[in-house]
Amino acid sequence: MKVSLFATCLVDMFQTDVGKATVEVLERAGCEVDFPKGQICCGQPAYNSGYVKESKEAMKQMIRTFESSQYVVTPSGSCATMFKEYPHVFKEDPVWKEKAENLAAKTYELTQFLIQVVKKEDVGAKLQGRATFHSSCHMTRLLGAKEEPMKLLANVEGLDFTPLPNAHNCCGFGGTFSVKMGDISEQMVDEKVHHIEEVQADYLIGADCGCLMNIGGRAKRLEKPVKVMHIAEVLNSR
Length: 238
Description:
The chain is an alpha/beta fold and 238 residues long. It is 51% helix and 15% strand. It has 2 domains: 115 residues, no CATH class; 115 residues, Rossmann fold, CATH 3.40.50. It has a 4-stranded parallel β-sheet, sandwiched between helices. It has a 4-stranded parallel β-sheet with strand order 6-5-7-8.
């Protein structure tokens, strides 16, 4: 099974360990992983800010980059969702719409791919401590990946999992929202950090680097001892 890694901007620039963990988890699951060097931003920041026309060139580049891939896997529910949005963006352009549909059909968020395609719930991970999980908005509401992370975490040896109160609430990141509406975003992430502290979690786990960067940054400023981990890093723990 050949997989192309869609690393995402945040992994590429800030959280490279997440990319490495994703590759190692996939390889242990029997996948052959490559990294198409033509990949850039998926266009989501511009698209969500209303610059649809300007974002299309980035989208076309991504479509070309992964055109020959068998599967495209990304450690981001948000970015996987953006690929699924491409057919809608190009709905008036038959040629690019078909290409976009092909890309969307073979794109998976990491936990989705492990559960739905590889059919593997136990990847042999081990991590001691109490953990809770932040359900990111795009991944759950738009991509529909709700149960996949839970199935994988349930099989991590030594992990004491506790559900996060109001887990469905946004952390306040929302891409450019956290910049444009900083005061509101701060109140939202403060509520999230409060709930993490409430369950006395050693680890806050998530599947979107943007959310984890936002929550982890706020927790650090508030001097909370929780360790923030991407689920790829958890699944790669030994």
